[in-house]
UniProtKB/TrEMBL annotation:
It comes from Streptosporangium minutum. The keyword Isomerase does not apply. Keywords: Iron, Metal-binding, Oxidoreductase, Peroxidase. Residues 21-137 form the DyP dimeric alpha+beta barrel domain. SUPFAM superfamilies: Dimeric alpha+beta barrel (SSF54909). Pfam families: DyP_N. GO terms for cellular component: cytosol. Its cofactor is heme b. InterPro entries: Dimeric_a/b-barrel, DyP_N, Dyp_peroxidase. This is Peroxidase.
Length: 437
């Protein structure tokens, strides 16, 4: 099966370039006619998955709509009712199921995230700030001079000089192969996943087809979960330092918690020491767990990457039903090396999780794999990196003759806000622009 790449937004299927610069801009639609005009204009600005060569290079613009945004455009109620129920509820309403409680609760989110004010999410991404500015300039006429469209929030993102995420790990390694896209996956041992797991209108792994009525609105679209995640880098460093015996042990703990060394080299391929040479190895992400490490002596079952993608683990159910396309972009200044106290600066990741099944993809992974440990026999243990820890959690590192247990895991990542969005096809953007009352 081949996908209709010229109708699918490029931001759905293309891996993030490296290095990169990006920006997220949120809009509110105050005037329906102006909102529809915005959709018409965006139809000419948004980059398609077929457009892999452009004058700006690895640069593209994506546009997404919240449930409230679709309603503000006047999409008929009978059509709105055909969207996924999680999408209709919104991320803030699903907070408890996602582990967004306490400090991460919607009552503490950055305004206007999680509110009915957010209607349109515009994302621009490029290799550097100069090309990003050109991409934003190209998109600006789409919303400029439309008084019924109000920009209400913006988050600029960028690659750190080290090309790592704020905790210091090499980022952007995993990318699933989508059947029919022609874009290779990062794990050569993973069979391409059915397109319907990520894009509406195509068969998924179970043979079903996710649809929205009318077909022109749903086909070639995707759902996305956008999240702003603040990272407590000083607290993370201090926890490693307090629980390690020496600097080498500190790096080992960091690797066991993540499942990768700081360079991005997986423990599965380099269990004893970091191997930065793997960073340029095209097969650095081609590994499995059950065959070589069923008990987690090399890669602990509760580490971050094994929870996020258990690969061939039998206890995780049908892993392919829960795969997502992940996009992470860094925001904020880096915390200087060696500093163990957070300085109050806002830093972290803007994350986008893309798929066709919000419930059994993003929500399942958050609730069952990140914030629970039953699936691999660890009770209610949470993910040591992004789990909703409260200072009482623990993390077990299998080893002989005695296992090692880290206790008192605090919350290292705090949710600052998020939205469930729909990424319409290019033809759907034009359809939305032509709506009439």
């Amino acid at each position: 099966m081949k996908l209709e790449l010229d109708d699918i937004q490029r931001g759905v299927l293309s891996p993030r370039p490296s290095p990169y610069a990006a920006t997220y801009i949120l809009f509110r639609i105050d005037d329906r006619a102006h909102g529809r005009e915005l959709m018409r204009r965006l139809g000419a600005v948004v980059t398609s998955a077929a457009d892999t060569v452009s004058p700006l290079g690895e640069t593209w613009v994506s546009a997404a709509l919240t449930y409230h945004g679709l309603a503000a455009l006047g999409v008929p109620p009978e059509s709105l009712e055909t969207f996924a129920w999680e999408f209709r509820q919104g991320m803030a309403a699903r907070a408890r199921a996602l582990g967004d409680v306490g400090q991460s609760g919607p009552e503490n989110w950055e305004a206007p995230l999680g509110t009915s004010e957010v209607h349109v999410v515009l994302v621009a991404l490029a290799l550097d700030s100069a090309r990003l500015a050109a991409a934003v300039d190209r998109a600006r006429p789409a919303y400029h001079a439309l008084p019924g469209i109000t920009a209400i929030w913006r988050q600029d993102c960028h690659a750190l000089p080290t090309e790592t995420e704020p905790f210091g790990y090499r980022d952007g390694i995993s990318h699933p192969a989508v059947e029919g896209s022609g874009i290779p996956g990062s794990n050569t041992l993973e069979t391409p996943i059915k397109a319907g797991e990520f894009i509406l209108g195509y068969p998924d792994e179970l043979g079903g087809v996710q649809t929205v009525r009318p077909e022109v609105l749903g086909r070639n679209g995707s759902y996305a979960a956008f999240r702003k995640l603040h990272q407590r880098v000083g607290a993370f460093r201090r926890y490693l330092r307090d629980n390690a015996t020496d600097p080498a042990d500190e790096e080992l703990l960091a690797a066991k918690i993540m499942g990768r060394w700081r360079s991005g080299a997986p423990l599965a391929l380099s269990p004893e020491r970091d191997d930065p040479a793997l960073d340029t190895d095209p097969y650095r992400n081609s590994f499995l767990y059950r065959q070589d490490d069923p008990a987690g002596f090399i890669t602990p079952g509760g580490c971050h990457i094994r929870r996020g993608n258990p690969r061939d683990a039998a206890v995780a159910g049908v892993v392919r039903l829960h795969r997502m396309i992940r996009r992470g972009t860094v925001y904020g200044p880096p915390l200087p090396d060696g500093v163990l106290e957070d300085d109050g600066a806002d830093r972290g990741l803007m994350f986008a999780f893309i798929g066709a099944h919000l419930g059994r993809q993003f929500e399942f992974v958050q609730s069952e794999w990140m914030n629970d440990g039953v699936f691999f026999g660890a009770g209610d243990a949470k993910d040591p990196v992004i789990g909703s820890g409260d200072g009482c959690g623990d993390f077990t590192i299998p080893r002989r003759p005695l296992r090692r247990r880290l206790q008192g895991l605090p919350r290292f990542v705090v949710t600052r806000g998020g939205e469930y969005c729909f990424l319409p096809s290019l033809s759907a953007l034009r359809w939305l622009g032509d709506l009439e009352d």
